[in-house]
TrEMBL record, chains A, B:
Cross-referenced InterPro entries: Homeodomain-like_sf, HTH-type_TetR-like_transc_reg, HTH_TetR
Statement: the UniProt record of this protein carries the keyword Transcription: yes
Domain HTH tetR-type: 11-71
Native species: Streptomyces longispororuber
DNA-binding stretch(es), residue numbering of this chain: 34-53
Gene Ontology MF terms: DNA-binding transcription factor activity; transcription cis-regulatory region binding
Tagged with keyword Nuclease: no
Listed name of the protein: TetR family transcriptional regulator
Length: 211, 211
DNA sequence: CTTAAAACTTGGAGGCATTGCAAAGTTTCA
DNA sequence: TGAAACTTTGCAATGCCTCCAAGTTTTAAG
């Protein structure tokens, strides 16, 4: 059964509102655009906007929500013989080395980050997403390596910190309008340095047994 | 020159507003008390409240602001032969072992934490304070160990994470109304486990030379 | 094809945080 | 004592967000 007309329209409307809102925020800044502005530009009522998005911040950070699962996904998909940390480091290096937009390595990311950096509300929401990511990763590690003790939470904390640190650094550099390829190269160095700060205990946690 | 009447009154008023607000929040929760309620209870106008506190959240987290300097202070005060991490671990252990209210080890902390846990706005503000603490610590480490490379930021990240993790765990346990002495004992174990996750690199960073 | 139920949209009213402004009221200091 | 400096206050306004009741549209059953 093909998905109903209703579903399709809903997704389209949601996407349209989010796109238009993002455009306005990039153009004028987060604070300078009201929800009423967004509603008008998207040709819906303010109530409809709130029907799709719980809060104004979600209009801008809608996409970043796939970032929440990223760490858990990477760990769940680790290869035989790889630890959780190995998987995270490998996946991160692949994206950074490939100058992937997924990690912010594209010219337009500067504008995006500036909007966030200038808005306390958006920064807050971003931290909240990172917290969620951390919680999710801890849950995954408890599933994969047993729920005993503090280790799942502690290792999750280390890996989430690693990820947040690298992403934060990239954001800070990109906001200076630096060349993505150059930032990519230096980010790889940062990843190396950060890896050296992780203990063996962390690096060898939750190794997937060879099948 | 004795401090003027004006200064004294200002400090008293500020303190009174903060105290009354805290009492109301503890009693009814953060969201259920309006700024107008606080103003009325403190017998001042709403504008006066905003004169002293930038936002509603600051009425509750006023005290937590000494927490911002804590890590920097500990590191700056490290003893001869001690690294930054040594100092943080030592000071933290002293407070935890002493069942100090400073680290949340007192019965009333449960109510305090519940108010925060129930309010996204307060949680946000708390993260913001932690971020500030991290930034401050990184600055301190750059002063104390030289500004080259990423190391000051990375080590600051590790130490701030350690502190936030332990404090967060204590908060979570105290919110369950557990016995402070018991939580203290277990927290010491957590600190041990966490220390084992720090690399030698971190543990030996910024050692103060024997004078 | 008709029709009732379910789901979506909308307008309107209202609560609350926060800001700006100008009119008092108070404290300081010459 | 009187002007300067600083505080407090009332008032108005903006903007986020919620609730509610009245339409509209889509679905699915008959």
């Amino acid at each position: 059964m093909a998905e109903g007309l209703r579903e399709r329209k809903k997704r389209q409307t949601r996407q349209r509102i989010s796109d238009i809102a993002t455009g306005l925020f990039l153009e004028r800044g987060f604070a300078a655009v009201t929800v009423a502005d967004v509603a008008e530009a998207a040709d819906v009522s303010v109530n409809t906007v709130y029907n799709y998005f719980p809060a104004k911040e979600d209009l801008f950070l809608d996409r970043g929500e796939d970032m929440v699962d990223r760490l858990s996904r990477w760990v769940r998909g680790r290869r035989a013989g790889e630890s959780a940390a190995d998987a995270v480091l490998r996946e991160l290096r692949v994206l950074v080395e490939g100058v992937s937009p997924t990690v912010g390595l594209f010219a337009g990311y500067a504008d995006f980050m500036r909007v966030i950096a200038d808005s306390p509300a958006l920064r807050s929401r971003l931290w909240a997403l990172q917290q969620e990511s951390l919680r999710g990763l801890a849950a995954t590690l408890r599933e994969e390596a047993g729920p005993e003790g503090h280790l799942p939470d502690l290792v999750a904390g280390q890996l989430a910190w690693l990820h947040a640190t690298v992403m934060g650094w990239i954001g800070a550099e990109m906001i200076e309008r630096r060349d993505p390829a150059e930032v990519s190269r230096e980010a790889l160095v940062l990843i190396d340095e950060t890896e050296e700060l992780l203990s063996e205990r962390v690096l060898n946690y939750a190794v997937r047994e060879p099948s």
